[in-house]
Write a structure and sequence with these properties.
Blueprint: H1 2-35, H2 48-91, H3 95-105
Helix pairs in contact: 1-2
Length: about 110
């Protein structure tokens, strides 16, 4: 009986943690979507629990903004590298292949 209750308690706790994580992710993404990078940090000493929640959401928004910026920079580097590889590949081909490529794509 104790083992069943222990398993039920563990499953309920896991479900609550997952639901809390999804709720937090939703709050962060909606705050990022509505406020963007200028998400204000509003702290009130009279309500410390809400202030901690707002601080956590604000930190999450800043983390999302940083990861978006880093991914944009990474994708830019990948795009430039891909273009350089394409140019290198075409330079190694014959003059006819280069002419066919230019006539088809660079008109």
């Amino acid at each position: 009986m104790v083992a069943v209750l222990n398993t039920l308690f563990a499953a309920t706790l896991k479900l609550l943690l997952v639901a809390g994580g999804l709720l937090y992710a939703g709050l962060v993404l909606m705050s990022y979507r509505t406020d963007g990078l200028r998400s204000p940090l509003r702290l009130e000493l009279a309500d410390p629990a809400r202030s901690v929640q707002r601080l956590m959401v604000w930190l999450g928004v800043k983390a999302v903004a940083a990861s978006v910026g880093a991914s944009k920079a990474f994708l830019y580097v990948l795009s430039e590298t891909s273009a350089e590889v394409g140019v290198w590949f075409l330079r190694r081909r014959s003059a006819e292949v280069q002419a066919a490529f230019r006539s088809r794509f660079l008109v």
